[in-house]
Design brief:
This protein is of the alpha/beta class and 409 residues long. The protein contains ten helices and 21 strands. Strands 1, 2, 3, 4, 5, 19, 20 and 21 form an eight-stranded mixed sheet that branches. An eight-stranded parallel sheet has the order 6-9-10-11-12-13-14-15, sandwiched between helices. α2 packs parallel to α3. The longest helix is centred in the N-terminal third of the chain and has 17 residues. The N terminus is likely disordered. It binds zinc ion (ZN).
């Protein structure tokens, strides 16, 4: 973890489990829908129990004090597109692998995540979905949390219903035409935990699949797609509301053939994921995206793979190998293969590009939570929400992290 431990004082009892009450005294809390200064927040049973000016908030007896002088508290980051971390991949789907991933990303401030699959044979995907779903169902409620780790909110199916022409590093042999029957198989294996699916809408059968997914409450993202503007528009009209790592693995924008990118950029109902690692998207292209869509519909993602939080070397993404050099992940053919980005770094990169701090925080917290329909519980600091918190220095370095009431220093 980064940040200076000398910056604040914390009593050791606040490193306990979610049963311990904590009073957090902060110079600034960015909720982020509201801003509090010279304030205190209390955490009880893993949730935020009060927030306000120091004179107004009742401190529970026996609460551990955490003093964040000169620091800003924001909600923990919510990552809707992440494949792995700490040397492990979500497709492994074992409790050990998922424990490692969730505890690794938490060290970088990601307190909830959507486990993202990659294209694989149907039976392999189903086996992974079963494992991840079992893990999700076994997660303890906030009040009983005893592990410092991100919560897995659900599953993002990235593939197999994508375009060969824009597959990136997804293995071509497992790419499949959109099939409602196969999708239903995935839903069943995932026991109701699928939250998002990436689809190439130009492939025959995609519109039926979009209807089927939206009627199940699954967010449909356009991604790994060679769709024209008209094909992407038809998908949005059918219910697609999200763009998956916008610019990457998409038909490029052209002024006479503006494609899927223009469809995403010109519809305010559609959210746009962005990998702000300085490698996947050139800064001016990111500025075009933000200038067109504004700050309310752009969502920072990591697209992080198993190499996240690890040294350079060879790692796996789903069933294939990836080389990581200077933190950049590539396939044997040299294509970008996810990232090793963490959302704390994405936040600093966005601010570095001129995005106001408050808006950059929203892009990594409340906006992804809203897209998933969990904005009262995650990505927000409000009474009743899970106590998922990140404490930042004025340089936006991590100074403390809490996941459902566990941790802080
Ligand atoms: Zn992808």
């Amino acid at each position: 973890m980064q940040g200076s431990p000398l910056f604040f004082a914390v009593s050791s009892s606040s490193m306990g489990d979610a049963m311990t009450a904590t009073a957090i005294y902060a110079s600034r809390i960015l909720a982020p829908q509201e801003e509090y200064t010279d304030c205190v927040m209390t955490v009880e049973d893993g949730r935020i129990s009060a927030i306000g000016h120091r004179d107004e908030v009742h401190i529970p007896p026996g609460a551990a004090d955490y003093v964040a002088s000169g620091l800003t508290v924001i909600p923990g980051f919510v990552d809707v597109h992440i494949h792995g971390a700490g040397g492990r991949d979500v497709m492994e789907a074992t409790p050990e692998a998922l424990d490692k991933i969730t505890s690794t990303v938490a060290r970088f401030g990601t307190t909830s995540m959507v486990a993202t699959t990659v294209t694989a044979p149907v039976d392999v995907t189903c086996k992974s979905l079963e494992g991840i779903a079992k893990y999700i169902r076994a997660q303890k409620p906030a009040a009983e949390r005893d592990r410092f780790a991100a919560e897995i909110l659900g599953i993002h199916l990235e593939g197999p219903f994508i375009a060969h022409a824009r597959r990136g590093v997804h293995p071509p042999e497992s790419i499949a035409a959109p099939s409602v029957a196969v999708f239903k198989q995935f839903l069943e294996a995932a026991d109701g935990t699928v939250k998002m699916i990436t689809i190439a809408p130009e492939i025959p059968g995609a519109i039926d699949l979009i209807h089927a997914a939206t009627s199940e409450g699954v967010v449909v993202g356009l991604g790994h797609t060679d769709a024209t503007f008209e094909q992407a528009r038809a998908a949005i009209d059918a219910g697609a509301r999200h763009g998956v790592h916008v610019y990457n693995a998409m038909r490029p924008f052209n002024h006479r053939d503006p494609g899927v990118i223009a469809a995403i950029l010109t519809d305010s109902e559609v959210t746009a994921e962005i990998i702000a690692d300085g490698v996947h998207v050139a800064a001016p292209a990111l500025q075009v995206l933000l200038g067109t869509k504004g700050f309310d519909t752009v969502i920072a993602i990591s697209d992080g793979i198993s190499a996240t939080g690890m040294p350079d070397g060879k790692y796996r993404l789903g069933e294939f190998e990836v080389n990581v050099s200077k933190g950049v992940a590539r396939s044997a053919e040299g294509n970008l293969a996810g990232s090793t980005l963490t959302l704390d770094r994405a936040l600093r990169n966005l601010v570095g590009l001129g995005v106001p701090f408050v808006d950059a925080v929203r892009m990594a917290t409340i906006l992804p939570a809203r897209r998933l329909g969990v904005a009262g519980k995650k990505g927000i600091i409000v009474v009743g929400a899970d106590a998922d918190l990140v404490v930042l220095t004025p340089e936006m370095k991590l100074a403390g992290i809490m996941t459902c009431g566990v941790g802080l220093s």
